[in-house]
Specification:
Layout: E1 3-6, H1 11-22, E2 28-31, H2 41-48, E3 53-56, H3 70-88, E4 92-97, H4 120-134, E5 138-142, E6 145-146, H5 153-163, E7 167-170, E8 174-175, E9 178-179, H6 180-195, E10 202-205, E11 212-213, H7 214-224, E12 232-235, H8 268-279
Parallel strand pairs: 1-2, 1-3, 3-4, 4-5, 5-10, 6-9, 7-12
Antiparallel strand pairs: 8-11
Helix pairs in contact: 1-6, 2-3, 3-4, 5-7
């Protein structure tokens, strides 16, 4: 198949391009931000022409910055996605987020749960989702993503472990830590299932099984690095005031994978152990 990966310079985009190469896919157009402005309709139309699968990992990812620049954030996460969906249609796999939900649930969010974003970033992503679904494409929501490339929570914990005796980490937000490379492989499997007619268009959840708190994840990171997890101290979100509200509960359900021939992602703890060698390099 011929692939277009937007946002190819980001954490997930880089992993996706590497996973495609590993899978033997050679016809891949890896478009970084400088290669393709997803907000330029003419450029998007030209890039999508002749492509079998479009995976959109391009996004405004500064959650706090979106609070004071919502129009700019929504231009990328909402309006640009609508333009991409208009020309790619059912060929589009678009990456979205748990932030389209309000975080008040007590059990995993199903794929068809109504959107209820609580911050500017989530509102923009929700707009993009609606456009993709209306065009017959695929939305893959993920959460608590970490990986080898770019800043993320796991890499931050490893850095702080080298700088401080103890680290305070919030223990009142719950979610599924998800390795970006594992998600990349899942996206490739989804594309294959879609091409084979086993995966209907719609929303899917690409997150690890199970859940923990940020404090629990930090302890696991320390343990995997051979460090004392008791150096990680629990605290609460009100100790770390940030411009954008965060969902307190970000656990997503995976029922829609049934019947596609694609297994949901494994447990977060198993995934972290597999990821750590690359993160420790």
């Amino acid at each position: 198949m011929r692939w277009l990966v937007t946002g190819a310079g980001g954490m997930l985009g880089r992993d996706l391009c590497a996973a495609l190469a590993e899978a033997g896919e050679r016809d891949v157009l890896a478009a970084t931000r400088s290669d393709l402005d997803v907000a330029d309709p003419a450029a998007v139309r030209d890039a999508v022409a002749g492509v079998d699968v479009v995976v959109n990992t391009a996004a405004w990812t500064d959650v706090d910055g979106a609070e004071t620049a919502e129009e700019a954030a929504t231009a990328v996460n909402g309006h640009a996605v609508r333009g991409l969906a208009a020309v790619a249609g059912e060929r589009l796999i678009h990456l979205s987020t748990d932030y389209v939900f309000d975080g008040t649930a007590a059990s995993p969010y199903a794929e068809d749960t109504a959107q209820a974003p609580i911050n500017a970033y989530g509102r923009g992503k929700a707009l993009g989702e609606r456009a993709v679904l209306a065009a017959g494409g695929y939305v893959v929501r993920t959460a608590w993503l970490y990986g080898e490339h770019g800043p993320n929570f796991v890499r931050t914990m490893l850095r702080l472990a080298a700088e401080r005796d103890t680290v305070d980490v919030v223990d009142d937000q719950r979610g599924p830590p998800t390795w970006s490379y594992a998600l990349a492989r899942q996206l490739i499997a989804l594309a294959a299932a879609a091409t084979a007619g086993r995966a209907a268009p719609g929303a899917y959840h690409g997150t690890a099984a199970g859940a923990t708190t940020w404090h629990g994840l930090a302890r696991a990171v320390f343990a995997e690095a051979g460090l004392d997890p008791d150096r990680v101290c629990p605290t609460t979100s009100d100790r770390f005031r940030r411009p954008a509200r965060r969902p307190a509960y970000s656990v997503l359900g995976h029922d829609r994978w049934a019947g596609t021939g694609v297994a949901p992602l494994p447990g977060w703890r198993v995934m972290l152990a597999e990821a750590m060698p690359a993160l420790l390099r």
